[in-house]
Amino acid sequence: MAQKTLVKPRTKTRTKTERPPLWKVILLNDDFTPREFVVQVLKAVFRMNEAQAYRVMMTAHQRGACVIAVYTRDVAETKAKEATELGKAKGYPLFFTTEKEE
Ligand code: TYC
After folding, report:
1. Rounded distance from Cα 73 to ligand 1 centre (Å)
2. Short-list 71, 78, 63, CA closest to 28
3. Of 16, 20, 66, 71, which one's alpha carbon is 20 to 30 angstroms from that of 48?
4. What's the pTM value of the predicted model, to 2 decimals?
5. 27 pocket-lining for ligand 1 (C-beta < 6 Å)
């Protein structure tokens, strides 16, 4: 009698979890927007407390730019736009941009 090969079915499911790429929201410095206003916007849009917002504002002020947070692309773009609009509404050149995280 021919020998039969026992084929054991795979029972474990292998899940490939691909995380969506994250996007950075970056705050850019300018010479006109008041520091206190930048802090207000950071608190309102990025849910930071006073100390966190102040630190981020000062980093952008001194170095030219500061990464604020990472989100999915949609959220990052929406928040950057919202925050930029708040400045625009007051006539400030305050600007937030996004960049894909590598
Ligand atoms: N540089 C601005 C000032 O001196 C303050 C400021 C800080 C503006 C950070 C934008 O992203 C910024 N009034």
Report:
1. 25
2. 63
3. 20
4. 0.84
5. yes
